[in-house]
Amino acid sequence: MSSQRTRRRKAEQLRTLLETQSESIQKNVDHLNQARYEAVNRFERFEELRSEARKIKENSIEELPSLLETLQDQVEANGGHVYLAKDAEDANRYITNVAASKDAETLVKSKSMTTEEIEVNDALEEIGVDVWETDLGEFVLQVAEEAPSHLVGPSLHKSRDEVATLFNRVFEPDEPFETAEELTEFARDYLGDQIREADIGMTGANFILAESGTITLVTNEGNARKSAVTPNTHIAVAGVEKVIPNADTLQPFVELISKTATGQDLPQYVSMLTPPVESPTIDFDEPDAPLGSGDAEREFHLVLIDNGRMEMRDDEQLKETLYCIRCGACANSCGNFQHVGGHAFGGETYTGGIATGWEAGIEDLQTAGEFNDLCTGCSRCVNACPVKIDIPWINTVVRDRLNRERAPSDFEFLVEGLTPDSEETVDLQKRFFGNFDTVATLGSATAPVSNWLANLGPVRALMDRAFGIAPERDLPEFKRETLADWFANRGSTVPEATAERTVVLYPDVYTNYVLTNRGKAAIHTLEALGVHVELATPIESGRAPLSQGMIQTATNLAEDVAADLRPHLDEGRDLVMIEPSDLAMVRREYDKLLDADAFERLSENSYDVMEYVYGLLANGADINELAEVNDSIAYHSHCQQRTMGVDAYTEAVFEEFGVDFVTSDVECCGMAGSFGYKSQYYELSMDLGSNLAEQFEGTDRTIVASGTSCTEQLSTLFRREVTHPIEVIAPSGP
Q1: Which DSSP letter does residue 82 get?
Q2: Which ranges constitute the DSSP H helices of 43-152?
């Protein structure tokens, strides 16, 4: 089967990167992350400016045609030239014509992802122009003949020793390079010579001010401004999305970009140039000649790239991609990127979470599909993004479109009971995980036979071949008695008429069919605190199909959940949820799937179970009604708990109990729902998990985790029972 070959190819690619690049990537990204956390924490206006920057981008993209007209008029009034290129070929044709008209032999460039996108270096070299990258990271990759692996740190995947070995081999210095200082000094001097001799300088542009025609360059090296003003001819290349109205709208971006990109309070260099600049030309062949002597004049060309961007602007689902300011925070915050980098988590040009939108827009869906599944939807990138782009949703939309493009195999038509709705055509692996509620229903109805059968060697081999389920991964054990069955026989022990509060507990798929004890513990705890509990109908929230890009199926399920919960909300009951990923679904993704009123009602009345317990205790409930906690605890919170900010409630409850606990600072356990089950991602999943294993290694504490995925991963890593926080504090009960 072609899907099996694809999985093997993907697994081999990831394995190679884990073996060769993972250590350098993790070390460098961790440094960027820690610096970002510290810089953001020091900056009180971070959230305020994020909202402001978001609004500016929204308005700028909406008004883009008129901004482009204003910009062109102003640049030409300044004495420069503007060219709007419809695609890469068109842009390169214009740029090479400019180079030919100047009889240019050499060109120096500052770092620019847009020039990477159009492959301008190749176009220039084809007409005999020597091109030199003057950014240190880009220079390293030019020497190594490699592509960038990060939007901000292009050579982030290389260690200092690797760079030293490369430079020693290529440049053969009298004394071998060893230290970072030696490498930097050599590159600075070597590239300084290239800049002085260059006929043309080329830069990108972080932001372009339409009102004045000003190019803003935000860099950590002085090479960009040197490349712009040392040669007499300056070509700036940028996507049309870089245009904003004026200097007043620039300030939030300058404040944000360095903090989110590199963790610096302020950028090393912010160069605002209104070219052609008025600084005098320099004749390096006559160093004693007065500045500006001779016949040389400044010449400026602004090449604005469309290359699919205007179509993206009209695409309501991909439009947000154009708000991107290329800071790389989405990549840095991503657990998978932290281990494999942009050579796996990236396309032809762009890398990290936002790369899916860029590659789908400027290349095609298939290019984006090569790495799209590395986004697990954890949503950490949303909190990190300085303009609040909903990157997981863009990834989900592209995944959905890929599903609709592919044709099913004959074998897939034979699989009954695992069919998506509408026009979705999903491969068997995604179909299996996207319909896990069906699998769980069948598994529970036939347990324990189903559990025994599923673990037989030949069956595991078939599951690997048909569905891509890693043979090494432990499978969930279905319970014959579901939580819904148990509750139907038992009912609530606290009458609604006498209860101070009433809740409806949502039984997610795992709580209902697999981890039933945590559901029982939640009910016992709430009842002990005087709450009447009702159990919602066990309907899959839509999280499973949404993670596979099956948006219509997820929408149908979300509507079913909303309809089931509507009477409970009408009765004034609070919605309490145990699984963080389903709570995130209700609080965040339902905004995309339901009408505004339904989403608002659900999101405003939903609570994490430990959040709800904390609220009860804070409002006078008797903690002595709960279990006495004597164990010390090692606690790992779920990704989406952290992004919603509800992880703090679990810790607060532990503190109320006086529990001796430690909390992991590892961002991701590596399981990420179905991701860790998939054969092509199993090794990556376990590599991520190794960080968590190291943190809790040798601990004799009780291991506690909030999320299903985290529970499964920690159980695999430690071969120990892992419990939910609610089970720690729950009293015994019928």
Answers
A1: E
A2: 46-62, 64-78, 88-101, 113-118, 120-126, 136-144
Torsion angle of the four alpha carbons 609, 610, 616, 621, in this order, in degrees rounded to the nearest 10: 110
User: How far from the centroid of its chain's Cα atoms is residue 327's Cα?
Assistant: 12
Of residues 534, 710, 559, the one with CA closest to residue 634:
710
Which residue has tokens 């609530």? 492
Instruction: Please say whether the beta carbons of 497 and 568 come within 8 A.
Output: no
Q: How far apart are CA 497 and CA 517, in angstroms?
A: 27
- The dihedral built from the CA positions of residue 311, 313, 318 and 322, taken in this order, carries a sign that is positive
Q: What is the CA radius of gyration of the chain?
A: 28
The region of weakest confidence among 237-241, 424-428, 531-535, 708-712 is 424-428
- Cα gap 386→330, rounded to integer Å: 10
- Across the range 490-498, mean pLDDT stands at 93
Euclidean distance between CA atoms 218 and 210, whole angstroms: 17
| pLDDT attached to residue 297 | 84
Instruction: Quote helix, strand, coil % in the chain, to nearest 5.
Output: 55, 10, 35
CATH domain 54-309 topology: Rossmann fold (3.40.50)
| Residue-level pLDDT at 408 | 56
**What's the confidence (pLDDT) of residue 420?**
47
Where exactly are the structural domains of the chain? Answer: 54-309, 483-729
> pLDDT of 213-260, one tens digit each?
999 999 988 889 999 999 999 999 999 999 999 999 999 999 999 999
Residue 290: cis peptide before it, omega within 30 degrees of 0: no
Indicate the range of 265-279, 388-402, 481-495, 532-546 predicted with least confidence: 265-279
Torsional sign, CA 170, 27, 379, 668: positive
CA distance 606 to 82: 53
Contact 726, 577 (CB under 8 A): no
Query: How many C-beta atoms lie closer than 10 Å to residue 525's C-beta?
Result: 26
Percent of the chain with pLDDT over 90: 89
- For residue 436, give the DSSP letter: H
* 346, 391, 441, 555, 586 from 541: Cα distances, Å: 30, 21, 15, 9, 8
3-state DSSP assignment of residue 473: coil
Strand partners, 634: 662, 703
Average pLDDT over residues 16-42: 93
Tell me how far apart the alpha carbons of residues 568 and 444 are, in angstroms, rounded to a whole number: 27
CB-hemisphere CA count at 13 Å for 25? 28
pTM confidence score: 0.93
Residue 288 has pLDDT above 90, yes or no: no
For 568-600, the three-class secondary structure string (H helix, E strand, C coil) is: HHHCCCEEEECCHHHHHHHHHHHHHHCCHHHHH
Q: Give CA–CA dist 63/10, Å, rounded.
A: 41
Q: Which two tokens stand for residue 345?
A: 């988590």
